[in-house]
Amino acid sequence: MEAGGVADSLLSGACVLFTLGMFSTGLSDLRHMRMARRVDNVQFLPFLTTDVNNLSWLSYGTLKGDWTLIVVNAVGAMLQSLYILVYLHYCPRKAKVIQTKSTQRLSFSLTIATLLASASWTLYGFRLRDPYIMVPNLPGILTSFIRLWLFWKYPQAQDRNYQLLQT
Questions:
Q1: Phi, psi (rounded to 5 degrees) for 31
Q2: Which of 74, 84, 136, 157 is least surrounded by CB atoms within 10 angstroms?
Q3: Which CATH architecture has domain 1-92?
């Protein structure tokens, strides 16, 4: 195997690993919802947008015949759909959103996982010279850095009950 082929295989593997890691960050929210039998501070929108994103990338991967894109996004779509179903099961009919200067409602693990996944997919697109892979992942890098800045500016107060569920 030539050097470019090895690098491409390693980068493809990194994309799969980091992206599946990002998708699995919802497992702690899933566990929390099942144990608490309510959604508490779990946000719905990230599950929905990630599911739509997975289905879009799955379509593109199928058209392109790229098995890295197909496998990752098929698994992602299944996980996100599961998270959505569990959320809807435990969601109260009337949800209130309180806007504060608090990162309590943001997931630090999802922020890190999104940064790693977006960066690896951007590099993967760059190696393939495919702007359709590279460009859509740039906002993930940007928003991850914005969220990291928010975590720095507004540190999370520790919720002991929720923290224990994440370990």
A1: -60, -45
A2: 157
A3: Up-down Bundle (1.20)
| CA–CA distance, 67 with 123 (Å, rounded to integer) | 17
**E strand or H helix at 47:** helix 45-64
Separation between Cα atoms, residue 149 and residue 145, nearest integer Å: 6
CB-based contact 61:73 (threshold 8 Å):
yes
Annotated domain spans of the chain: 1-92, 97-157
Token pair 């960066």: residue: 119
For residue 23, give both structure tokens: 């998708």
Surface-to-core class of residue 102, CB atoms within 10 Å of its CB (0-12 exposed, 13-18 middle, 19+ buried): middle
State the DSSP code for 44: S
pTM for the model: 0.59
pLDDT digits 0-9 by tens, 56-96: 888 888 888 988 899 999 999 999 999 989 988 888 754 55
